[in-house]
Task: structure prediction
Amino acid sequence: MTIVFRLKGFEQDCFEIRYAAGVLMRGGLVAFPTETVYGLGALVWDEGAVSKIFQVKGRPSDNPLIVHVSSIEMVEKVASRIPEDAYKLMEKAWPGPLTIVLPKSERVPRIVTAGLDTVAVRMPSHPVALSLIRETGEPVAAPSANPSGKPSPTSGTHVVRDLIGRVEVVLDAGETLYGVESTVVNIVTEPPVLLRPGAIPVEEVEKILGRKILIPEFAKGLGQVEKPLAPGMKYRHYAPEAKLVLVEPSSYTRECLKALAEYIKTQALAGSNGKPCILATLETLQHYSGVGAETFTLGSRENPFEIARNLFTILRKVDEEGCSIVYAEGFPDQGLGLTIMNRLRKAASEKHLINC
Ligand code: TXA
Ligand code: MG
Result:
């Protein structure tokens, strides 16, 4: 049985948080909101509880989990060494959507890190997440609270739909702020490497570090992933049931955006059976009228925060609306654009490039 707590006027040490912390301490699973997406949490030291996370999600056992903390002392419990750069990042970017990969301490069960000798750690800024971890008094291992391969949940409603009956507690605090997962950086390597672009742009992390971070092809959602480096990135991810076709123009000038929309329009019109849908932006929306495809607007290209925030919600919506094929426009690989493109490329079954 799942207890769903709807948290509106949230208070730090309310009954719901104390109850959920008790469930974690006794080896149960709790789905909780963070500022990025909802997480599915277990006590980090409890191998049995952590293995339930893998079962409930249908997650491959070689894909490690992020450990969530509410203090630096908790980081010291799960990491064997904390380099100076990590302190810099923790001071400036935490609590917030940055995950730091550090050398793992012996105490962290191997199942959490999928056998790696590193551990990924982050301090979320969502007040519900922070007080849940504080109340538990121990770090909480948590992947995104979606069945493996599906778009991450950005609202309590998504979580309830996906996990009802499979976890002990869902803490529902409505929609999340960023709507996209944290940025994952490995600072154990020289130079530091971006393992997953996320809610904090990699350029901002570079500014805090005062040096460059290597951006491998797989972080863009391209090429082959080196498994030991970033296990999670090798899987197809975030995909709706509908077939997603990503169309990338060679540049993002006005003319190119027009050519991009024309191309998508032709494709959608020529489409075979089923219902074609289009993920448009405010800048291209007008081109799609009269195409006979259902159009969803991600937001304005001037505001990538909004586009990132709407992406997973709309990827779920296209399935609810029965789309059979979805055409998505590309975005420049910079700032949050890199994050958006990583998710779109990993969700796509087909990628089309157009020269303009
Ligand atoms: O925003 C987020 O990060 C959300 C919320 C719940 O905190 N969590 C999340 O977890 O997105 P998950 O499990 O869906 O993604 C974790 C990513 C995966 O790509 C995984 O491979 C990578 O982090 N990861 C975890 N531990 C790692 C490690 N030791 N080395 C390299 N990559 C690691
Ligand atoms: Mg995930």
User: Anything to note?
Assistant: The pocket of threonylcarbamoyladenylate (ligand 1) is lined by residues 34, 36-37, 39, 63-66, 97, 99, 101, 113, 116, 118-120, 124, 142-144, 181-182, 184, 195-196, 230-233 (CB under 6 Å). The first helix runs from residue 15 to 25. The CA atoms of residues 39 and 144 lie 4 Å apart. The radius of gyration is 20 Å.
